[in-house]
Amino acid sequence: MEPYELTIAEANTLLAEKKLSSVELTRSCLERIEATEKAISSFISLDPELALQAAAKADLHLQSGEGGGLCGVPLSVKDLLCTRDRTTTCGSKILENFAPPYDATVVEKLNSEGAVIVGKAAMDEFAMGSTSENCAYDIPSNPWNIECVAGGSSGGSASSVASGQVLGSLGSDTGGSIRQPASLCGIVGMKPTYGRVSRYGLVAFASSLDQIGPLTRDVSDCALMMQTICGYDRRDSTSVDRPVEDYSSFLTQGLRGVRVGVPREYFSDGLDPEVHKVVMDGVGVLRAAGAEIVDVSIPHIDYCVAAYYLIAPAEASSNLARYDGVAYGFRKAVTSDLVDMYKDTRSQGFGPEVKRRILIGTYALSSGYYDAYYKKASQVRTLLLNDFKRAWESCDLLISPVSPTPAWKKGEKADDPLAMYLSDIFTLSTNLAGLPGLSVPGGYSISGLPIGIQLQGPHFHEGELLKCGFNLEKGLNLERQIPAITA
Ligand code: GLN
Asked: 269: domain range?
């Protein structure tokens, strides 16, 4: 086994026992990147020099018996998390050479533990998309079939972890962008409760929905990364001041007495039969592990796509107003007047999907339409939250599909925004209700593409989700694989 194939937990053991150094581990990942990046395109920017420096520093800590957590572990971070020493493009031309003057809180946390950030992962422009095809740079491929999409918007994060380029990654999830690419690439992804992880230094897309979370090769690693990134931060006003639980301690607990709800609306006609089967197999595994399975209903799930695709663009149109060529990023050279400069900068700097969202969002927020659209969509959030509250009376968490189908071919939905939006049907409710969600590998399609299973729970019940995810992983006992990649 090559070092790059290790999980974070396995690497930690070897690093602590001094059987492996962080420099060796980092070199192994860098070689893997060298061998696969042409085919996979996980990264917008790579910095081997900085990575090796961080690894050498981590080795000093490890030698003196310090370390642990993520010390010495090679990771990628999505290119919308601000990093002082590297560019942060958000997958957009408008921020092509933008180097933020500060680190995001989560990046600070990784650095202070001695993690090795190898590079910035590819993504849909400003995190708007479900395949990463809206990236203004190279588009990541699915490591299981490079003709297929890696999912989005954290596609580069997912492909870098699944292909063995790094051991873990940080992504962001506004409507499924951690869980869906994790599912499509056969890895674990968690969207924490809104407020659990600081969003300071996360470039805003839709502020009432955005949340940062980990993508890892298994559930134990997810618990480890969660431990590092969670916690209160006074620099994010939506951050919640509440103690962080010991997530790894949940993993060893059994499922006896745990009630798992199967929300009937998630198993509608449009669901791919292979996905349906994988999720039902997961239900069987949880039952065998001692969980009680109950039938529940989330009746307002049908309104999620419509509500999300009003709220997210509305908030985005406001958040993206700052990219006007004045304060930072790309500026189209001024000829005569300021308004022309704004217009030229924004029309050349943004890609088509971002412009579509800005137009939809500006329209939905305009006076005379606000009540009919943004306000109405916000009311749907309350109805949805009530559905979940009712569900929590009869169950502790929910099991469902992540994506209605396995990964699809690049280009297949690229010209059909509606088809793309509809593929988010099962992930949006988690963000609209501010809940935690976890995607765990459940199996494979006949054509060999991974299929994930989603778990959703009440606010701040990340520990229970990880416990259930761990039991699912154990019961399914899928062979851990890093696909062979041939360009
Ligand atoms: N696919 C969704 C969108 O395009 C979700 C994106 C996300 O979670 N960042 O908005």
From this structure: 262-298+380-391
